[in-house]
Amino acid sequence: MTQHALVTVRLEEPMVAGKNPRADSRQDSHNHVPGSVLRGALAAVWLREHGTEANTSPEFERVFEGEGSFGPLHYASSKPVPLSMLTHKYEPTDECHTLWWDQARGEKASHCPNDRCGSQLEESKGQPYGKVPSVDRTMVALSTDGVALDGSLYSQRAVQDGLLLRGWVYGDAVRALYPEGTAIESLLLGSRRSLRGEATVEVDTEAFPEPVELYGEEVVLRLASPGAFVDEFGMPSATPDPDELSEQLDVSEVEITGSWTRWEEAGGWHAASGLPKPVERVVAAGSTYRVRCAEPPTDTARRRLMTRGIGLRRREGFGALYRCEPPWGISSFTGHAAALRAHPELVSRFQARLEEIRLDNADDSQFDDALRSTEYDDRIHQAIQAVLTVKDAEIYEQILRYMEQNR
Ligand SMILES: [Zn+2]
InterPro entries, alphabetically (predicted)? Predict the structure, then answer.
């Protein structure tokens, strides 16, 4: 078994992953697949294969209740904007070069320096990067006994089908992806059985994780999911344990030199006993730490930490990590977009790609022929490459609008 695996799911049906698993009426839904939902879906397959009595076997406990990590599955726009980021309070203009300032990298400003904009900046609250593709599902409200209540249809937001969502599984938890010895190919995701949420699954054990960010001798850790940390007395802590970090980064000593966090509460559901878990204080997704290391950690250690995550309850999806580069403003692309205006056949191909970007499912190889074609000069080749780097649907849409103007 490898130490980590990249899991990619494609939603074949809309998915509702409720934030409160036992609320039977209207409930808030996650915009991604939380690690706990992935783990629950895999455990259900395991118990179907091995029999429900297998849930007390040593192997089940090692895989599902052990030290491994089930990370959340995200797509580009469902990731949180890190809490260290200062963002535009008002809509940025087409001329703003910088959209976010990252305090974790020493960037500071109170207003956008662009004269035409001058927007006040505000601290991120950990909101998603961008618009979340969703559909409304009509549901029947159920009583606590699971009986449909009369006349209580209501509609609920569900994550749109067609999306690709990705995340890491680490350590003993990787075994969960092989319930019958071969990699799992489909799963039912979501907390409401009535909605199913069928998804196809791809398990990639060759995928190379990105390392956590390193600036000189300091790493920046950003949480893709809430983090559960405790201090030396076992009380909730807003920061990770330095001993854990120095051990996992394989350095002699670390010091947390900056933190941008927000408290929230996390409940949970203990499947075996059917009882709710006590509510715990955790830090919100998007929380960010700057950590000074006695010596720079190796690339290998930083890649491993990215797939493992930090803190407690990692098997329930807590403490997952991600990298974040602030997006470029549209002004960085207007020169390229203007050059492309002269080629309507390319503009229409870029238009067709918008829906793929929204679903985080873009196939850039379909531009290979244009990039090789001598019909276009270098300027156009560069413009195509620049636009292909844009993964944010809202910025991509603005670039399209710019291409379509004044044609
Ligand atoms: Zn601005």
Answer: CRISPR-assoc_protein_Cmr3
Which pLDDT tens digit goes with each residue over 384-400?
A: 999 998 888 888 998 99
- CA–CA dist 166, 156 (Å, integer): 24
- List, in sequence order, the alpha helices (H) in 218-343: 242-249, 299-308, 334-340
**Residue 86 alpha carbon to ligand 1 centre in Å:** 12
Closest Cα partner for 209 from 299, 306, 102? 306
Ligand 1 ion: residues within 5 Å (CB): 92, 96, 112, 114, 117, 119
How many domains is the chain built from? 3
**Is residue 372 scored above 80 in pLDDT?**
yes
Q: In terms of residue numbers, what domain contains 34?
A: 4-77+160-204
Q: Which two tokens stand for residue 186?
A: 């489909």
The confidence band for 22, taking pLDDT boundaries of 50, 70 and 90, is very low
On whether residue 96 sits in a domain, the answer given is no
